[in-house]
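[09:14] KT: can someone run the structure on this one? pasting the chain below
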Amino acid sequence: MVYLDKIGDRKTMINVALIDDEELALLEMEFLLKEYPCIHMLGKFTDPAEALETIGGLKPDAVFIDINMPQLGGVELAKKIRENMSKTNVIFVTAYEQYAVEAFQVEAMDYLLKPVSKKRLDETIMRLMRREGLGVPMRQEVLEI
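[09:31] RB: done, structure tokens below
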């Protein structure tokens, strides 16, 4: 896939962090995100409190957060992130549909249901690219006039 940058725009990557209390879920999301050349992984965390403490210094463009975590719930974590880093995009990745309304009340950019499909993740990444000012993907075909 070829990306066109906006004229004068130097940003080429979207820095992300992953937060999920299940290590396997983190590894799966990391695997899925590696398919996108515009995504740069800053870190992944199983402890939401540690994540909150650390990502302030990392300043991610986006965080992918599980909504149902025992130590600190994803919605509460998102509120704290939004208070300290208002420009950080919050994307919930969860197996629970019933938290969608709460998620959007904290201005989540997106809400992905596990297992995350490639098509649905493509939509999220495209939305992130637009928000972060990255170019849009071009089709590989060449038009001749």
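[09:33] KT: thanks! Residues 1-10, 137-143 have pLDDT under 50 and may be disordered.
[09:34] RB: yep, looked fine to me
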